[in-house]
Amino acid sequence: MKDRLSPLMKDVLSGILAFAFAIWLLIGCGKMSSYASNLLKPDFLPRALAWLLIALGAYTIVKAVILRRKERAAATVQAPEEKKAEQESGKRTKAQIFNDLVPYITFVLIGLYLVLMQAIGFAVSSSLYLMAQINLLEQKRTPKRIIINCVISIAVAVIVFLIFRKGFGMHLPTHRWGGLGKF
Amino acid sequence: MFFQNLLLGFQQCLTWGCLLWLLIGVVLGISFGCIPGLTATVALTLCLPLIYTLDLNLAVSLIIGMYAGGCSGGLIAAILINVPGTPANIATAYDGHPMALRGEAAKAMGTGILYSFLGGTFSFIALFAIAGPLGKVCETFGNRELFAITFFALTLVSGLAGKSLNKGLIAMMIGVSLSLIGISAVDGSPRLTMGLSKLNNGLEMIPALIGFYAVTELIKSCNHDDRGEIMQFTKFKGFGISMKEFKEQIWNFFRSCIIGTAIGIMPGIGGATSNLMAYMAAKNSSKTPEKFGTGYVGGIVASETANNAAIGGAMVPMLCLGIPGDGFSAVFIGALMLQGLNPGPLFMSKSSDVVYLMYAGLLVANTMTILIEYFFIRAFIKLLSVPKHMLLSVVIVLTMVGAIGINNRVFDAWTVLIFGILGFAMTKFDIPMTPTILGFILGADCEQYLRIALQVTQGSFKPFFTTPVSCVFIIGALLSLGLAPWFVKRANRTPTGQVYEEE
Question: Which of A176, B70, B120, B470 has the fewest CB atoms within 10 Å, i.e. is most exposed?
Fold first, then answer.
């Protein structure tokens, strides 16, 4: 996986993630009530973790910014031509941009898959998900390949459903219209 | 007594059923290990619905087989396409692929397979020697000692995993926070449930681990195709390594065994670190360090010995304390829980039959691995040409099935997705995942031990320092935090710049 985030950005985002968890913990602590008297209250650790996360998040961001400033100060001034050449080489093609987006699209697809699974059952939602996912990852998207991928998707989804539902007796979600529930 | 129990273990293991499931496990482990982007941990998460339905002995045999096969399988891709099948084979590619380019692929593969076997066997013997006595000591531990040990494990892995201490600590605290969701075991208070009754029992461990390990790995590898040209080789002649070379590598072998086993014992760190550490140690102590990286057999010996030696090591804290030694053993603990077992300090005595089955299974699976890899290597090489777009998509569906199968609810599949997103974000931001996993597994227990211990001591921390074991581990925890910056600095000097990253 190519890394396009700068070290500074990574540290800043790490700090923000820590803050996000700290806020969630503090909100959660506000709603806590103890049913028993203990030396350590149930909200002690979450609250302590929240403040530690805030401290560590802030430290990570501040340290990254200071380091970045030091690096900038130490760096020599680039010639305009060099800078231009660097920018040119840094330009990405549409295919590269799309490639970088694939993981995020995959997460969205999985989310849609789970929503659909509850609505229309496992087999149909899995077929649709596999069609979308396989064709998304396919390097050579020709009409013939897309059709083959769709056929494979349906076959795999049905086979998986039958193995786990009928073979292992698992309660995979079904729907009377689309989930192969009466198979 | 030990040998009697071990014989009983072999008696259980050498039944047709167990042998069959061991074989299936080994084949699955090698297959998943050799395909870049998939690991034995992914194979185990996919098999969870199956494990749930299997008899205990058969399920344990399957898991043990995958563990033994997975680590060794990664060398195939590392040597033939210069892409390590698993993070535990990174250093194998440094010398294995140059050897393949020189037309010595068979020698590289043979050496790797042989030393995988030898390294694994060494660590299993070490496991038998350490786990039994240590398990007996662990049975006597009370809440103070258990708190100190879990606290030590959390601080140790936070300091060692990744390139920065503060990110390691952030990761560990995120894991601990997530472990606190649900009703508190000490006083029954619901915590951080956000009003969702489904969260009253906390987040399920298995879907969380599937999300972290399997989904993150799959998503990471889905926007690129690393496959280069697959190098060909004719056939094995012995194991490729001459007796002279074998003798030359004896010290390298033993050193790598010790490094691998020792790193395996450390919580949350595993084969991914041990192979690089052993490689560096072999290079630094060699009279001809310039040969390393150019196709030198010593590099393969160090890497493959150490990563397999880490397996036995990783099982020590798992069996004695319920603390995972690496990613696979983390999911292994979850799988044992599915079977109604409770890995922890009493596991060795309460489930001794399962423990001895594991011991016997490890030895048998290790032997199966060397035989299968030696005789059927071509079948596994063919797996390198399986279309990745199909494989990854189908595996994602299977991970969802695995998650749903645990409680028969789609809610757990959402847990997989959320943890997958979290894991992916953490990878993007260079936050190590191992501390989060360990924090998630141990966090709630650590707090519970502390709260109960404080009730017993009536709020005093003094007894924590007057009990020798807890005192040693609390000091160890503080030391590990204090020394972490030095370790991180050293880690950043290694070939990859990131030694202490999880599998």
Answer: A176
Q: Could you report the per-residue pLDDT of B348-373, keeping only the tens digit for each?
A: 888 888 999 999 999 999 999 999 98
Residue B263 · residue B279 · CB < 8 Å? no
Give me the pLDDT at residue B499, please.
41
d(CA B201, CA B180): 10
Chain A: residue nearest B394 by CA? A130
Q: B67, B278 in Cβ contact below 8 A?
A: no
Share above pLDDT 90 across residues of chain A, in percent, rounded to a whole number: 39
| Contacting residues of A for B215, CB less than 8 Å apart | 110
- Overall size of chain B counted in residues: 503
Q: For residue A37, what pLDDT band results from cuts at 50, 70 and 90?
A: low
- Distance from the Cα of B355 to chain A's closest Cα (Å) equals 27
Q: What is the pLDDT of residues B273-318, one digit of tens each?
A: 788 888 988 888 888 888 888 889 999 999 999 989 988 888 888 8
Q: How far is the C-alpha of B397 from the C-alpha of A58, rounded, in Å? A: 39
Q: Which residues of B282-305 are buried (b: 16+ CB within 10 A; e: fewer)?
A: bbeebeeeeebeebbbbbbbbbbb
pLDDT at A181: 46
Q: How far apart are CA B349 and CA B137, in angstroms?
A: 11
Does the beta-carbon distance from A173 to B447 stay under 8 Å? Answer: no
Q: What is the pLDDT of residue A76?
A: 61
- State the residue for tokens 């037309």: B103
Question: What is the CA angle A41-A43-A46, rounded to 5?
Answer: 135
Residue B240 CB coordination number (10 Å): 22
Q: Report the C-alpha gap between B104 and B117 in whole angstroms.
A: 20
Who's near B375: CB < 8 A, 6+ residues apart? none
SS3 annotation, B72-99: HHHHHHHHHCCCCCCHHHHHHHHHHHHH
Tokens linked to B427:
């990878």
Residues in chain B predicted with pLDDT less than 50, given as ranges, are 496-503
Number of Cα atoms under 13 Å in the Cβ half of residue B491: 20
CB-based contact (8 Å) between B49 and chain A?
A: yes
Q: Which two tokens stand for residue B153?
A: 């494990």
pLDDT of residue B232: 65
Q: How do beta strands B182-183 and B190-191 pair?
A: antiparallel
CA distance B177 to chain A (A): 7
Q: What per-residue confidence (pLDDT) applies to B283?
A: 87
- Does any CB of chain A come closer than 8 Å to the CB of residue B418? no
Is it the case that residue A98 has pLDDT exceeding 90? no
For B408, the closest of A10, A35, A170 (CB atoms) is A170
A163 DSSP assignment: I
Report pLDDT for A55. Answer: 96
d(CA A4, CA A99): 12
**Is A35 close to B421, i.e. CB distance below 8 A?**
no
**CB atoms A60 and B191 under 8 Å:** no
**ipTM of this complex prediction, to 2 decimal places:** 0.88
Q: b/e map of A92-131 (b: 16 or more CB within 10 Å)? A: eeeeeeebeebbebbbebbeebbebbeebbbbbbbbbbbb
Q: B46 is written with which tokens?
A: 């996919």
pTM above 0.90, yes or no: no
